[in-house]
Write a structure and sequence with these properties.
By secondary structure, the protein is of the alpha+beta class. The protein has 2 domains: 123 residues, Aminotransferase class 4, branched-chain amino acid transferase, N-terminal domain (D-amino Acid Aminotransferase, Chain A, domain 1), CATH 3.30.470.10; 154 residues, D-amino Acid Aminotransferase, subunit A, domain 2 (D-amino Acid Aminotransferase, Chain A, domain 2, Alpha-Beta Barrel). 27% of the residues lie in helices and 28% in strands. It contains 8 helices and 17 strands. Strands 8, 9, 10, 11, 12, 13, 14, 15 and 16 form a 9-stranded mixed sheet that branches. Strands 1, 2, 3, 4, 5, 6, 7 and 17 form an 8-stranded antiparallel sheet that branches. A hairpin with a 5-residue loop joins strand 9 and strand 10. It is globular. The structure holds pyridoxal-5'-phosphate. The site of pyridoxal-5'-phosphate has 13 residues, from helix 6 and strand 14.
């Protein structure tokens, strides 16, 4: 019964989603995928003591463009600081490592890059004093996170973690257990994604995306104090809205505003700009992707694929 439900919800997959790739970067070395293994008693595996990033590469006719590479490594090291992990590499060293890795793998197609800093093998002390801190980068071909043009979402019964518990502002591995609870419930109930409320019952974010509501031509998004990750896609959309003369308000968002929104979309590196067409089975607006979402999604795609830099050429890193 359990397996049936999971299969219906697409949770049990018969094939692995990510294919092994030739090389991985780990602790300063480009190493083969097969050799890049970690001890079974690695602290991070047991306690979630790691921080990570998700970066996208977009293949063009003659190059591969990485979006906001520097900002992702800045956020990675900020997450590490929050978890009190000491990484021995600087942002610039990690950016160079990332480029070296992608070139070693000769990756030219759309891809996803996963840097991770994590506590390694030493013992079971939760304080991990003097334990090894490992840094790795993995890059692999990747197209889309949601294979659907419009998402049916629910409001989750799980509360988003919050700063005094495990800070959502940091991409801490263990934080994602909170997202997993919400995501699996949503999938089993036939939804594409869950929207989580924070500890005071206001809208926070999706399990791996930020959320924007469109109302009367304006954008409304939960503020950084609403238990969200400060998403780089969120920041990019706020910037592009300015360029498109669309007003953005960052504030607390009530659950009921999701039911009266004209449009809703989610933003994330993996998800891109993902329109939401229903919340708790209630159609958003007319139940179709709206014009503001369409306009911003197009601008975002033009930006990441190098068609228009909208005054931010520093956001694009050419690999070759
Ligand atoms: C919980 C959470 N919120 C929001 C986001 C969106 O952040 P970004 O746009 O930087 O990918 C992510 C993805 O990293 C996430 O995991």
């Amino acid at each position: 019964m359990r397996v049936d439900l999971e299969q219906q919800a697409g949770i049990v997959k018969t094939k692995t989603e990510i294919q092994p790739i030739d090389f991985v970067w780990i602790n300063g070395q480009v190493t083969s995928w097969e050799e890049a293994t970690i001890p079974i008693m690695s602290h991070a595996l047991h306690y979630g003591t790691g921080v990570f990033e998700g970066i996208r590469g977009y293949g063009t006719n003659d190059n591969l463009l990485l979006f906001r590479l520097h900002d992702h490594f800045v956020r990675l090291l900020e997450s590490a600081r929050i978890l009190d992990l000491e990484c021995k590499y600087s942002e610039i060293e990690l950016e160079n490592a990332c480029l070296e890795l992608i070139r070693s793998n000769k990756l030219k197609e759309d891809c996803y890059i996963r840097p991770i800093i994590f506590v390694g093998f030493s013992g079971i002390n939760l304080g991990f004093i003097n334990y090894p801190i490992n840094t790795a980068i993995i890059a692999f071909p990747f197209k889309t996170y949601f294979g659907k043009p419009g998402l049916d979402v629910c409001v989750s019964s799980w509360t988003r973690t919050y700063d005094p518990v495990t800070p959502p502002m940091a991409k801490i591995c263990g934080n994602y257990v909170n997202s997993v609870f919400a995501k699996r419930d949503a999938a089993k109930n036939g939804y594409d994604e869950a929207i989580m409320l924070n500890s005071v019952g206001k809208v926070s974010e999706g399990t791996g995306e930020n959320i924007f509501v469109v109302k009367n031509g304006m954008l409304i998004t939960p503020s950084l104090g609403s238990s969200i990750l400060g998403g780089l896609t969120r920041d990019t959309i706020i910037y592009l809205s300015g360029r498109n003369r669309i007003r953005v308000i960052e504030r607390e968002v009530a659950r009921s505003e999701l039911y009266t929104a004209d449009e809703i979309f989610l933003t994330g590196t993996a998800a891109g700009i993902a329109p939401v067409i229903s919340v708790d089975r209630r159609p958003v607006g007319n139940g179709k992707v709206g014009p503001v979402t369409e306009r911003l999604a197009k601008a975002y795609f033009d930006l990441v694929s190098g068609r228009d830099d909208f005054g931010h050429s520093d956001w694009i890193t050419k690999v070759y």
